[in-house]
């Protein structure tokens, strides 16, 4: 295994050297080779972590430096990635472990309503469900958060007062992200001032796909500055629009370098949202980022996760890729409101031996 990892790292370093060599600067490749070959090392700590963060900061000093760094990341083996994700999805767990997995998944859900027809009454009802997902069983965990548009944050905050459920708000011209930066920052500021604990921002996919990586980085940094220590920041890539796994890896690194607390797959508003493969890739990215910097970043797959079986597959991905430290709603979330009802029905079946059906849970 050691030889296999050594070969992989050597190949990645060689690839980076060639990429930089095409730009006439092999010294750049040598300087950052240890940062992009993804060694399987323990997390950095103390002065070493500070040094690694400082060194990584150099790659965002200019657009050309960031481009060289991102295009020097190891290429993604799409077939291997999808095969591993599919393989992990076949793992079976025992009934007792399934019960714990269901409760864990419930506690990780960002219960969401992001529709033009949202009303204060709908938001209050959603908040009540977040606090008591199953009113007939008060042992059911609360969800992690309720996610709404900025104009509904105050309503959600009031409805959740006294609970541990967070208020998350989408911002930065969600879901398209097509607005000027001052508008996006004002959107973020309004949500935080209304009481949002978390901000889910969307990146400018047009800028990313046009290769303007530093613009994307600086926009995330600006939103991060608005959040400061008042709100955690989730950065949404809209992976279904990024076209390639290599782009998803690059976007993940841009988000983490810019200070994201979470990296998130999707808005849930496009045809292709969270998949086991793209989530696995992002989990590998946060694992490697922490190995290099000592900084832990969360992951949130969103959209298309509808069943308990799906949720458990994603939890297996987390456990097998980044380990138990991420098996907590501080570091892993589901953006999948419809998932909650299926989790509740499966939970009831485990406790009563009977499958109640959808008429026994509230309709969002």
In short:
Helix content is 52%, strand content 8%.
Which short descriptors sum up this protein?
364 residues; alpha/beta; seven-stranded parallel sheet; 52% helix; 8% strand; globular; disordered N terminus
Roughly what percent helix? 40-55%
Strand order of the largest sheet: 1-2-3-4-5-6-7
Task: Tell me about the largest β-sheet.
Answer: 7 strands, parallel
- State which percent range the strand residues make up: 5-15%
H/E series, N to C? HHHHHHEHEHEHEHHEHEHEHH
Query: Looking at the structure, what is the overall shape?
Result: globular
Number of E-state strands? 7
Distance between the termini: 49 Å
Number of helices: 15
| Secondary structure category | alpha/beta
What is Rg?
21 Å
Average pLDDT metric: 86
Uncertain runs are 1-47
